[in-house]
Specification:
Length: 212
């Protein structure tokens, strides 16, 4: 079976492909995604954004199952921020940072600034991912995954992307940017969300009533 994923993010595609490695599912990016105008992502939840994107992008691949995700970081001390704004956290706040830095680096710098007064013991956070599989505009299956951690006071590690250098995993004593890829894919929120979705598909647990 083939699933088209509506993302061009190489890190996300790698996470999904690794999660499906021992299954009969082939993960491929949605064809000609760069030519498709991006839909607005103005829902207040990961699930809402994933549903809207899956329904929209599935219209560009008639008859095929198209998967869309929305994922990000939730920090308890910040009331769940950055949440659905994770990818644009610094930009939405008007935080320019160092213009020589990447978007990820600016987001990390802004997060650290927001947490300056929060002690290490109160920096609990989680990565969360919502996945929706749709065909011809109709949502059919959903999946969710999360991983718990805490936010450090400075970045560590060169791997991963996004907030990985700040996201510390106590059970490994490392950040998400320091662990090896095999370990990361085994515990990642995207991997868990995809496995949840695939398990529902295998059982025939149609989630259409949850997607209307």
């Amino acid at each position: 079976m083939k699933l088209y994923v509506a993302t061009s993010n190489p890190g996300k595609l790698r996470d999904f492909a690794m999660a499906a490695q021992d299954t009969s599912v082939d993960i491929e990016p949605l064809p000609k995604l760069s030519e498709i105008p991006a839909p607005p992502e103005n829902e207040t939840t990961f699930a809402g954004n994933a549903l809207a994107k899956a329904a929209y992008y599935s219209g560009f691949a008639p008859g095929e199952l198209v998967v869309a995700d929305d994922s990000g970081l939730e920090v308890d001390a910040l009331g769940g921020e950055p949440g659905v704004r994770s990818a644009r956290y610094a930009a939405d706040a008007g935080f320019a940072g160092d213009e020589r830095h990447s978007i990820d680096q600016r987001n990390n710098a802004y997060l650290l600034r927001e947490l300056q007064a929060v002690p290490p013991g109160q920096r609990s956070a989680r990565y969360r991912c919502a996945l929706v599989a749709a065909r011809d505009g109709v949502c059919l299956y959903t999946g969710e995954g999360s991983v718990e951690g805490k936010i450090l006071t400075e970045p560590r590690g060169e791997g991963g992307f996004g907030y990985d250098p700040l996201f510390y995993l106590s059970e490994f004593g490392k950040t998400m940017a320091e662990i090896d890829l095999a370990t990361k894919h085994g515990i990642s929120h995207r991997g868990r969300a995809l496995r949840d979705l695939l398990n529902k598909m295998k059982r025939g647990s149609n989630d259409q009533h949850q997607c209307d």
